[in-house]
Amino acid sequence: xxxxxxxxxxxxxxxxxxxxxxxxxxxxxxxxxxxxxxxxxxxxxxxxxxxxxxxxxxxxxxxxxxxxxxxxxxxxxxxxxxxxxxxxxxxxxxxxxxxxxxxxxxxxxxxxxxxxxxxxxxxxxxxxxxxxxxxxxxxxxxxxxxxxxxxxxxxxxxxxxxxxxxxxxxxxxxxxxxxxxxxxxxxxxxxxxxxxxxxxxxxxxxxxxxxxxxxxxxxxxxxxxxxxxxxxxxxxxxxxxxxxxxxxxxxxxxxxxxxxxxxxxxxxxxxxxxxxxxxxxxxxxxxxxxxxxxxxxxxxxxxxxxxxx
Length: 309
Known about the structure:
Radius of gyration: 17 Å
Distance between the termini: 46 Å
Strand content: 15-25%
Oligomer: single chain
Mean pLDDT: 94
Helix content: 10-25%
Number of strands: 14
CATH architecture: 3-Layer(aba) Sandwich
Structural class: alpha/beta
Low-confidence stretches: none
Strand order of the largest sheet: 5-7-4-9-10-11-12
């Protein structure tokens, strides 16, 4: 498919019908350290550009504020942003899943954030740059029922070729104060001097996120290049999935939403008076607090994202 975008993650390792846990990765990035001061991301909207979402999932339904379908699934019905693949539901859960009143289920990084679901990849996990551009523009112009605006865009996807129109749209969104986060890609070979590029992550206006293992080593599959910004957990990650279930997946697609969720928390801890400066201030926060890792910057960028008050 010409100018296509897609994702590439591991096979589902395990499926659980019930799960009650606070993922340890929340503490790897120290999210819970700032939950009180950040109000768990309350008031912020994260646009998830992916395969859609399971709208009925018990740990997601309350946080979905809207959505739009940019694919040909369901005859192109714009209101049918249902996830038939599971990838988008998993990504959304890492960002903002919330446990029910009895503490059942799983919890995301910013569980009080709202999710705007923009379906740009179809049931086969494939989409186009055209759909991605339309979705970013939609996110820029979107206004919620109570005047909400999109604050963060997560893109756990990528294409192999640069695209001028996509780049221009990303620049416009950033100028409006939106922080754009993207997966680095899963075509790495473990060699820090062998560069792999995936777009939109490779663009400097986007926070490009690589993956690390449980013991904070660069994941072998994670793309290496000069524009890697930060890393986050990306291996064997439990999150929400189709049919009210939970699964474990691996990939930079899982690392990126940890950072998108972190951004939602950071936004409630910084001065947002100057809208155009917000992405710079957020990036400076992450740069200042990141945990430095003893690996090439082509693998880990500025280090492991950390949240501190």
